[in-house]
Write a structure and sequence with these properties.
There is one protein chain. The longest helix is centred in the first third of the chain and has 47 residues. The protein contains 6 helices and 14 strands. The strands form 2 sheets. A 7-stranded antiparallel sheet has the order 5-4-1-2-3-7-6. Strands 9-10-11-14-13-12 form a 6-stranded antiparallel β-barrel.
Length: 261
């Protein structure tokens, strides 16, 4: 009985199937439309991801450019051209041999040798609080610096390195004079051995110079056209007295000589 019932059910199913049925073109079209819609969604998603990626990349580029120009102004870039030009001069090449990099644990500045046996001049604030001080010369010689004496009131310090026949600069017997042309050589920003030029604007208690000064120039020698140091850079200031422009401030050489060890 059961087998007969199952057979009757199968016969009923066969009656439901049309042996002459064929799928219509619309059936295939619907499948194609669904596939196209799916593909279109994938393409739109890829385009969206690509667009977002481009936007993020552009934002990063603008951020890098903004940081670059906030750190290195157009003036800072232009002084590289000036330094290159001045560095072709034989006297400037010679001066640069005596200008050093002063490196502490948390500070970096400039200094210069004033004797063949390694007496170095720099700023007090460059070495203040630094337990280990390294002194690097232009040709790559590196020495450990020993603090000999320091004068916070005039922002001058003297270091000693263990060297012989070191290149060094001569000190002027007198302070620089107003309108005198000068060179400034130092380690501004992330660069080293940058030479620049300017003039002395004032010579009262401080020597004010027009040469561009940046972070890292502290301790740079101000050298007159006779090749003698007439002042030591320690800061910069923007003031209305000189048309609102930034000027360099330097310790007059006579004050430096008075305190030499």
């Amino acid at each position: 009985m059961r087998d007969d019932k199952e057979k009757d059910d199968l016969d009923d199913l066969d009656d439901l199937v049309d042996p002459d049925w064929e799928p219509s073109p619309e059936d295939f079209l619907m499948e194609e439309i669904e596939e196209e819609e799916h593909k279109g969604n994938d393409d739109n998603r890829k385009k969206w991801i690509k667009t977002i990626s481009v936007v993020i990349a552009v934002m990063l580029v603008f951020q890098v450019v903004a940081v670059f120009f906030s750190t290195f102004s157009i003036d800072a870039i232009s002084f590289l051209k000036t330094s290159y030009r001045l560095s072709q001069l034989e006297d400037v090449k010679e001066y640069k041999q005596a200008v050093v990099t002063i490196q502490g644990e948390r500070s970096r500045g400039t200094g210069f040798a004033i004797s063949a046996d390694g007496l170095i001049v720099t700023n007090h604030h460059v070495i203040d609080g630094q337990k280990n001080i390294m002194v690097g010369f232009h040709q790559g010689e590196l020495f450990e610096g020993e603090l000999i004496s320091s004068y916070p009131d005039i922002d001058i310090a003297f270091l000693k390195v263990d060297g012989i026949n070191l290149p060094h600069l001569s000190l002027s017997e007198k302070d620089g004079v107003k309108n005198e042309n000068v060179y400034v050589i130092g380690n501004p920003l992330t660069w080293t051995q940058i030479a620049n030029e300017g003039a002395i604007l004032d010579t009262n208690s401080l020597t004010v110079i027009s040469a561009p000064i940046y972070r890292g120039n502290s301790g740079s020698p101000v050298i007159n056209m006779d090749g003698e140091v007439v002042a030591v850079v320690f800061a910069k200031r923007r003031t209305n007295q000189y048309g609102g422009r930034s000027v360099g401030l330097a310790v007059p050489i006579e004050k430096v000589v008075e305190n030499m060890p």
